[in-house]
Fold DUF72 domain-containing protein.
Amino acid sequence: QALQWAVEGLAKAGTLSIIGVYPPQARHFPIGLAMNKNLTLNMGNCHHRKYIPRLIELVLAKRIDPARILTQVKPMGDAIEAFKAFDRREAGWIKVELHPQRHGSAGTAGEEQVKDAEQGLAQKRELAFAARAVGSIEINGSFYALQTPERYADWAAQTPEGFVFSVKAPRFITHVRRLRDIEAPLANFMASGLLRLGPRLGALLWQFPPSFRFDAKRFEAFLAQLPHDGEQALALVRQCEPRMHREGYLDLAPGTRLRHAVEIRHESFRSPAFIELLRRHGVALVVADTAGKWPLLEDLTADFVYLRLHGDKALYASGYSEEALEAWQRRIEAWQQGRQVPDARLAEPDQLAEGGTRDVYCYFDNDLKVRAPYDARRLLERLGLDRDLAVRPGQPPAEGVLP
C-alpha cells in the first residue's frame, strides 16, 4: 500500500527510492503507473564488494574496531532468547553478536590453567580485573546504545568500593538530534539504569561532533534540562517512554548526584560566552588532548575537572612519554588543590576560576595500540594513587584477587 501511495504521490519524472526489506512474497508494484509517469526507481543495498576489502584493511591495521558497535554479546546457547529480545526491540539490543561455544575433551586443572594463560583473561572477568588495576572506567557503550538496569547493576557488583564509572551520553542526543527535541531521549537515558550505579556513578560525558557549532540559545536550553541530583533525575525517568519500563528502572541510591561534562570539537566554542554558560550551570568543560586536531581548552567551569587524553602525537594511537605524563601530573595536582596552572589554555583568559579543591576524572583513549591501560597506570603511580590497586595491566592476577 505504501508503494502505491508513493507512486501516486510523485510528480511526473520524479524519483522513488525504496528502502527497507521486502520479502519475496511482496510481488505487487504499480509498474504501469510508474512507467506512465516516467519515474526513476532506486532500490537495493550499497555496493558491499566495493567497500569490504578496504574495511578489512582498516580492521587488520587496527585503525577501526568493529566490535565497538556491538551492544550485546551472548553465547550461542542464548540465541533464542537473544532473538526474542531483539525482535521486541528491547533497549540495548541493536547490534548483537552470538559467540560460538567451544567444546572439547575435558582436561586436567593444570591444562585448563595453561589454556587460560594462553587465551588471556576470560571476558566475564575483565571488568573485575580492570577495576583492580585502575580506579575508574569510562563506559563507552552507552554512547552507541542505551544499556539496561541489569547491566549497570552487574557492573557495580563487579567493582570494589570506591570505584567510579563515568558514562558517555547517547550520540542520539548529541549527534543525531543535535540537542533538538531531546526531552524523551534524555528521559530514556536516565531510565536506562545508570542511577543503579549509586555511589559508583562519576560524571556523564556529553561529546559533540566536530560539525556542531556553538549555539548559545540551544546550549542554554540543553544545560537547563540536565539533572544534578537523584530526585531531579528520577523526575526525568518518570517521563520516559513505556518501552523503558523494566525492573529496576526507578531504582535510586540515596545521595546520588549527577555531574556533567561537555566535550566540544569546534572552534566556535572558544568563546567566553560558552565558558560563562557552563559555569552558570555547574557543568565541566572537558580538557581533551587530541594531538592538535580539536580545541584543547582548560577553563575550569565546575567543582571537578574531566580530562580525556586521546594521544598527544597521533590521535587515538600514540602513547605518552614520561615527560608528557609529568606535565599532566602537574596540571592534575594543581586542579586538585583548586589552582589553575600558569600556562593554562583558556577561552576566557581573564577568568582563572581558582577556588576550592576539585575532583579530577582522567581517562586515556589512546587505545588503537593498546597504550591506554599502561599510560593510565603510570600516571596513577606518579600521583601516588596506585597503593590500593591489587593488579597491574598485562600481568595475571594473584590467587584470590578477583571475585
